[in-house]
Amino acid sequence: MTAPAAGPDLARTDDIEWAVRLLAATPTHEGRDPLLLRRWALAADAFGSALTPVACTARVVERDGGLAQGLLARYRSRPPTVELYTDTLALAERVVDERGWRAWYPPGSVRAAALAHEAVHAHLHHGPARAALKRSLGHTALRLGRWQVPGHVAGAEEVAAHAYARTVCGLGRSPLLLTAALAAVTGDDRARPARREN
Fold it and tell me: Alpha helices of 138-174 — where are they, by DSSP H?
């Protein structure tokens, strides 16, 4: 999944528009109606914002090498592990200071948001919340009379995880804004706060 395209005045773009851009940049959504993407972004953001606090029960490992991979953090399910990339965390903190965004992202909140984001990936991977997210999006994969199967929306889990991190960490803006700023600084369109791997 690539980062949303970024312009010079990143903070002028609101959090939902960053979520729409994330969805639009996700494979399978090429040519999708922008209004549909916005509806999905709003639903995923509302779902993530409304989640009750989720504990991060995975083992946390800190390491370098995130900038080379375009990662700030990553969840791996086997065994449940959150990898935090200290080089990208340090760059994110510098970007926050340089752009004057400290009121939105207080000291230490980038790391806390990355952990919260990954906790949601684990929560959605291991429990019934994934089905609840699908239902909240209103996308139907299959319909037979009155019977319907909710469809998967690629990227919606990321939007929900960012909204959750913004909410539980009390951030002024979504981590998606910081993602766009990191991509602008590194010139790496792969830059993103998190990626889940099974």
Answer: 156-168
Pair 96, 110: CB distance under 8 Å: yes
Contact (Cβ atoms closer than 8 angstroms) between residue 19 and residue 176: yes
Residues 6+ apart with CB under 8 A from 71: 83, 85, 88, 192, 194, 195
The candidate with the shortest Cα–Cα distance to 192, out of 183, 77, 125, is 183
pLDDT (tens digit per residue) in 57-116: 889 999 999 999 999 999 998 898 999 999 999 999 999 999 999 999 999 999 999 999
How many whole angstroms separate alpha carbon 179 and alpha carbon 19? 11
H or E element that contains 67: helix 66-69
CA distance 23 to 162: 13
User: In angstroms, how far apart are the furthest CA atoms of the chain?
Assistant: 56
Angstrom distance (rounded) from CA 114 to CA 197: 15
Structure confidence by residue, pLDDT tens digits, 28-67:
888 889 999 999 999 999 999 999 998 888 899 999 999 9
Residue 34: CB atoms within 10 Å: 10
Are 139 and 40 spatial neighbours (Cβ–Cβ below 8 Å)?
yes
The answer for residues whose C-beta is within 8 angstroms of residue 26's C-beta and 6 or more apart is 1, 2, 154, 155
What's the predicted TM-score (pTM) here? 0.87
